[in-house]
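input
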Amino acid sequence: MSEPNLPNELIYPVDLDNLHRGQLAELIFIRKAASLGFAVAKPWGEGERYDAIVRYHSMLWRVQVKSVLPKERSRSSYRIRTAGGRGLRHTPYSVDEIDFLVAYIFAQDLWYVFPASVIEHRESIIVNPGCQRSKYEPYREAWDLMKSPATAATETESPAHAAVAGT
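output
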């Protein structure tokens, strides 16, 4: 008996609508985070501003997962939406709602890990993978930020961090 072909959505995420591409990015995030030693829980329903709860030792983080498919036209940069909501109204995420925003760049199979304070009050940011002059380049694959209570707590200044980290 032959193996069935992989569904097109795993090979060609461009063929997915935003909802299904976002769900695929969340699955990829869970796999990546688990491979790095994080425990990941998915909240029931869609009522929260975060997509996952990530645990590393005794620290818990609320994580919003975003994905980016196309890059900016005629540029090597990608626009990451740092706001969320239904319909036409998108509200930027705040440190009271999330602790980290992680963004997956499908085309390059890479992640950006942003403390909430870095993206707070912004509707989007532009990243340019590999450009050392980019102010967001230090956040590329910056998974260690979720492993350090001191770094994350000082960067995000969220009351949730102090309670979880015991500071």
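quick obs: The first strand starts at residue 39 and ends at 41.
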